[in-house]
UniProtKB/TrEMBL annotation:
This is nitric oxide dioxygenase. The keyword Metal-binding applies. Keywords: 2Fe-2S, Heme, Iron, Iron-sulfur, Metal-binding, NAD, NADP, Oxygen transport, Transport. Residues 1-55 are annotated as: Disordered.
Amino acid sequence: MDAPTTPPGENAVSGGGGWFMPRQGASEPLPNGDQGASEESLRVPVRRSAPVAEEGSPDALLIRRTMTEIGPDADRATSYFYALLFVRHPELRSLFPAAMDTQRDRLLKALLTAAEHLDNTPVLVDYLRNLGRGHRKYGTRAEHYPAVGECLIGALSKYAATVWNPETEAAWVRAYTTMSQVMIDAAAADELRAPAWWQAQIVTHDLRTPDVAILTVRPDQPYPFLAGQYASVETPWWPRVWRPYSFASAPRSDGLLTFHVKAVPAGWVSKALVHRARPGDVIRLGPPTGSMTVDHTTDSGLLCLGGGTGIAPIKALVEDIAGRGERRPVEVFYGARTDHDLYDIDTMLRLQQRHPWLSVRPVIDQRTHLRFPEAIRAYGPWAEYDAYLSGPPGMIRSGIGILRDIGIPVGRIRHDAVEERLVGAG
């Protein structure tokens, strides 16, 4: 699983992972004479159940205690989970990339997210529904979930052995049963209205810098999305390896989609899209997701902070406001390390010329004593604005703190980044 808000490349989070997402590193060999929970006790049924856990419930406490215990051995526990899964259920191996080390560790993030929100049903259910819909592109089916639950509990029972007991196992079975059913139901409902993925042909490939390209693609069928959202992308060169990227424009009448991609040293997908992809190549798109969208029920101003290729969804938000004929103030701070990194500044300045309600301010770290996004303190006041952030994780973390310090309530700060999100993670 990914965390509740999940973005792309430098402007999103890598992979839309989950219970089925591979981790980085090889699997730990499955030892002989495994003394974990018995295989029979690990057969997790998939059925409807009550809310995952009430606030402060024994189940929530037991599950959080398990996660605390497993923390120091998280990598080994995750490796062991995949060893169990592939040994006991080899038919599931084909759902994963051939090179397992191309993926980040999604399982631990999923567990931490579930544990954190276990007794916050609305947040967790919304998260799980998005996750279930996103799993369709991997070929995940309802009958796969019991096998995953079986091996998940097998790994937990081994690496949280000092706190593991029948009550803890029962709590995990109940929680996983409920969570997996939410995902299954969401996938089934989504199957009635949307494909698992879209084929999209690259129409243009504009190499703006040696490592940043702007791609425009044409989906093979209508692709509904909202400005500020993102999609997972799979290339033909790395099958079953998906990386999310934000849409760099609002929905267009011609149906074309635009992405900004930065190639990074360890980024197989990003390197392929920047250096290998050409017009005519066909990629695959997962369903749109993300919550960094404009609230059109208010006329509040927008304070937008975009760092690096994080300017992509900010540009889409500006186009969304313009396309609806709104004239609310929009303040964009475009952060970069050098002038060279402001690869799309001309586009943003042209938008500023056309729309008097839009202000675009480039902030270049090498030219100012204030690092982005600290520079926003010199302007304002911003207390009545809705804030939008997109960019590297460090920028998101510091930006949230600064925005709260200057009086913007946390409920009016929107972003699609997670704590572990790495710049250009793929």
